[in-house]
Write a structure and sequence with these properties.
single chain; about 250 residues; Rossmann fold; 2 domains; 7 strands; about 40% helix; globular
Amino acid sequence: MRQSIAFLCDFDGTIGVQDVGELILTDLVFPRMAPTLLQEIAASGAGSKELYSRWYGSAPPTQTEFLELVMEAAIDPRFAVLCESARRNGDAVAIVSDGFDAYIQPIMEQAKISGIPVYSNGMCFGSELELSFPHHNPNCKFCGVCKAAIVMDYVRRGYYTVYIGDGTSDRFPVHVAHKVFAKDALISICEEEGVTYTKFDSFQDITDWYAKGALDEDKVRDLHDKCQSLHENSLAFLDKKRAKEFLSSS
């Protein structure tokens, strides 16, 4: 019997054609911040959790302008094909993003994609903009979402894990996954850190690989040095219930 596969996919710049999170910051947040404050935050060496908190806390966008911007974003149409193929074959697909639910959810609903887990940070519009980090590793100061822990959770559950990403937030999970598809900045990261990867341009490359049915076994798997605490961690900090219900099928 073939081992079940879990496709764990970054969102911004991977599923999403644009980096939506970066677009929001560039168009709605950074222009409203004092240059000296931006420089101070950039020089702090903070991880994404603290950076998001300081950026959005200093210049929160309104919900109206936020949605007007993000609903113009497009996704790779072949991602839906992967989701459907995996569903037919009894395999898993999950979105693993250090971005925010406030744009991932409406974009996925617009694309009519449901029934897959989504691990992301939270953003709630109200009298004040509220951020939450339901998948943050309390032993780490770097990431809002602990992507390495999510990959490790699927590994522990017996899946052959395929990680698909494009940027710096994908640095840590690629060490844990059985197979990595990389593009853009993640290619350089993998080469610098000795991580075996396959270059991809779109999800067409992923579905082509999937159709062949051969699971690569030549990749070295280990945790990044900054993630070593996960060896002994129960991973209970991951809010898997929230992730599962995020895009529940109607």
